[in-house]
Amino acid sequence: MKVAKFGGTSLASAEQIKKICAIINSDPARTLVVVSAPGKRSSDDTKVTDLLIEMARARLTKRDGREELARAVARYAEIVRDLGLPDSALEPIATDLAARLALPTDDEDLYMDSIKAGGEDNSARLVAEYLRHDGVEAHYIDPGDAGMILSDEPGNARVLQQSYGKLRELKERPGISVFPGFFGYAASGKVVTFPRGGSDITGAILSAAVDAEVYENFTDVDSVFVANPTLVDNPVAVDEITYREMRELSYAGFSVFHDEALEPVFHAGIPVVVKNTNNPQAPGTRIVPERGVGERPVVGIAATDGFSSVYISKYLMNREVGFGRRLLGIFEDEGIPFEHTPSGIDNMSVIVRDTHFNHAAEERVLRRIRTELEVDELSVERGLALAMIVGEGMHHTIGLAARACVAFSRAAVNLEMINQGSSEVSMMFGIKAEDIPAAVRSLYAEFFRE
Ligand code: ASP
Questions:
Q1: Alpha helix stretches (DSSP H) within 358-435
Q2: pTM of the model
Q3: Ligand 1: which atom is nearest the Cα of residue 47?
Q4: Is the dihedral of CA 69, 72, 78, 80 positive or negative?
Q5: 91-101 and 108-133 are packed helices; what angle lies between their axes, rounded to 10 degrees?
Q6: Taking 80 as the threshold, does the pLDDT of residue 426 lie above it?
Q7: Per-residue pLDDT tens for 308-355?
Q8: Overall fold of domain 300-448
Q9: How far apart are CA 239 and CA 251, in angstroms?
Q10: Cβ(376)–Cβ(417) below 8 Å
Q11: Which residues of 232-243 are buried (b: 16+ CB within 10 A; e: fewer)?
Q12: Which of 107, 334, 390, 417 could be stapled to 426 by a disulfide with Cβ–Cβ 3.0 to 4.6 Å?
């Protein structure tokens, strides 16, 4: 049994939906299908999920949201018409979205999640209907009935372990099961969503639950590339990559996959293939537990901004037992996760994401460090980016750090920090955000140009 997940661009129009139905029908093992909400038809288009978010906001800010509702319904109407389905196929969608708009708004976060879930839910109903119209046995699956039980964290839910047992029963369903991505139900019965891009997570959970032969993730590119194609012209494609490598690259800005999506398949050891709905013959990129390292020790390069560094120095820090714990305890008390903690004999930096470190949080943290830890120096550097080279081969290859540093110096990129985790799958460099393009291009030239 294969689990096939189709992303937003694969659902964006009737033409795309016809392609995904042809893909489903071309392989009898593709019996569990996960779909996103209709995405962008072109670069300046708006995803249905974003239209729905606008609709919810309109209602929450006391306007009625009917104009936004009409825009979302119009997207489905166009798809229904171009698929050649009768007008009656649109009615339940229009009714469902209008009913969501009218839900009580007392808990704004839960209201927002119920609205956002409407994109995927109606997508799944529509695809099942179209497959049936084509003579194929297909069923829409309600995530609540199927047992997709999530933590009660609106917009940021996680699957609860107890879900897996019930979800496994999907194996026994007849025909093609079409499952909406992105949402499930909290134990209280309320709809909750994963973070944005979370249909990938649904697909991975289902793959683990049914012990799929492979998790196929259909998107709009032939494969994953070793570097961001908007920074590097025609980058080399990745044929095979390990979960660990992919996880490191996703962390540093590879946007192919949602970060959290690989966890369930990683634990179950299920291979993942990233494929192109518009060119399903292309072999795609395989994400596997292990791979032969071959001649290229580096599999990818990524860089992402949005970090800040808090620098602390204190004479004889190395002798002060518990200093690190007390310092990180301050971040913990403030609810700020730390990303990295490069340290020297008498100094330490704590690198955090800006999304968790606004100016008010910065003020509180600095005040506490000053009063509780009696440090000599304390400063904050904003506008930091992390550039990474990633590859399992790093472990056995001498001289990679030297080559990366030469590449940075050639591009006149100043290094603020170097960090190699003990796993030796990646090497991380702190740079200024404005240096990202130069850094990525020069690393690419060093490691991938023939
Ligand atoms: N439709 C949702 C989003 O736009 C989830 C997804 O497509 O994976 O974030």
A1: 359-373, 400-410
A2: 0.86
A3: 4
A4: negative
A5: 170
A6: yes
A7: 999 999 999 999 999 999 999 999 999 999 999 999 999 999 999 999
A8: VC0802-like (3.30.2130)
A9: 20
A10: no
A11: beebbebebbbb
A12: 390
49 lines ligand 1 (CB under 6 A): yes
| Nearest alpha carbon, ligand 1 atom 8 | 197
Residue pair 176/139 in contact (Cβ under 8 Å)? The answer is: yes
Token pair belonging to 222:
């032939």
- The pLDDT-based confidence of 422 (bands split at 50, 70, 90) is low
Which two three-digit tokens encode residue 213? 């032969």
**Residue 182 CB less than 6 A away from ligand 1:** yes
For ligand 1, is residue 235 a contact (CB within 6 Å)? no
Q: What does DSSP assign to residue 195?
A: S
The DSSP bridge partners found for residue 48 are none
* Topology, domain 2-220: Carbamate kinase (3.40.1160)
Q: Checking DSSP bridges between strand 183-186 and strand 191-193, what pairing results, if any?
A: antiparallel
| Ligand 1 probe mutation, 11, 36, 202, most atoms within 8 A of CB | 36
- Read off the DSSP letter of residue 236: P
Task: Tell me which residue has its CA closest to atom 5 in ligand 1.
Answer: 197
The full set of domain ranges for the chain reads 2-220, 300-448
Annotate 157-198 with three-state secondary structure. CCECCCHHHHHHHHHHCCCEEEEECCEEEECCCCEEECCCCC
**Amino acid residing at 393:** G
Amino acid in position 118: G
Across the chain, what does the average pLDDT equal? 94
Q: Which two tokens stand for residue 212?
A: 């799929």
Query: Do 31 and 176 form a contact (C-beta atoms < 8 A)?
Result: yes
